[in-house]
Specification:
The protein is α+β, with helices and mostly antiparallel strands. The chain is built from 3 helices and 6 strands; from the N terminus they run βαββαβαββ. The two termini are 17 Å apart.
Length: 127
């Protein structure tokens, strides 16, 4: 049996809450809900589009470290405090997944920091 591997991206929330960015287990990669927070500076962009772009970059890095890409994502969940912020992100989301769109759900809910406008969680299958 392949051991479980945990991937951290240096988020200040990871040790505070007790989670990691991604877990690789049984041929799957489970990426935690990811917001658009710059882990090096703690800065959170104001615009939802900028937060979305940053969250996607963080997720892409975790997927790459796990050994896969956005093309391997089979499930994505989007959590937004305001559903009106979802449509401005669609071009970036469509661009990230390209010809390999995953199953998806959008949920309207509060996030841990009121400055966060989008959180993205994905599950991918290792190639």
């Amino acid at each position: 049996m392949t051991p479980i591997r945990r991937i951290s991206t240096g988020s200040a929330w990871e040790p505070r809450i007790g989670y990691c960015r991604a877990v690789v287990a049984g041929g799957w990669v489970h990426v935690s809900g990811t917001t658009g927070t710059d882990h090096a500076t703690g800065e959170i962009p104001e615009r939802v589009e900028d937060q979305c772009a940053l969250a996607l970059r963080i997720i892409e890095g975790a997927l790459r470290e796990a050994g896969c890409t956005f093309a391997d994502v089979v499930r994505v969940r989007y959590i937004l405090p305001d559903r009106a912020d979802f449509a401005p992100c669609w071009p970036q989301l469509a661009g990230a997944f390209g010809a390999h769109p995953p199953a998806a759900t959008m949920i309207e809910a509060g996030l841990i920091d009121p400055r966060h406008r989008i959180e993205i969680e994905v599950d991918a299958r290792l190639p």
